[in-house]
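A quick aside before the break. I want you to see a complete sequence-to-structure record at least once, exactly as it would be stored in a machine-readable document. Don't worry about memorizing anything.
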Amino acid sequence: MENSIEISKTELLTTTFWSVYRIEKTYLIIWKDSGRDMDDQSFKKHITSFANLIETDGATYDVKSFVVDTRAYHFVMNLNIQEWHDQEIIPRYLNSGIKKIAFCLSGDLIRDLSIEQTFDESQAQSDQLSTLYFQDLRKALAWAKRVD
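That is the input. The structure line, written in tokens, reads:
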């Protein structure tokens, strides 16, 4: 498994827990190992800030997809967070024109399952949004960039 990818990217947002880049019309979110210290409120704050970015920068650059690299870490979402994400965040993604979300999974059963369950919620399962899971970051980016 590759640990990094060398591509031309614009850094947009960096925190203790993640970095967000724009690669053409696709965002790349790379979670950091420090995410282990995140609580529910910090997670909500980060996801909300990303939704805000999509509504501003994404509109300017016509971003239609994003890739989330969870190999270093990803916050384990409990059922309340999964429902909040589906009701509050997914509609913002859809209203901003996001069509595809790819996840590069870690292989950690619990973390990966919480991500997959979140995107099995009703809003995320709309015909407007496609979500796929990968173990190879290059394949995830290639798929996400192909937006019809």
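Two observations worth writing down. The CA atoms of residues 71 and 107 lie 8 Å apart. Residues 40-61 form the longest helix (22 residues). We'll return to this after the break.
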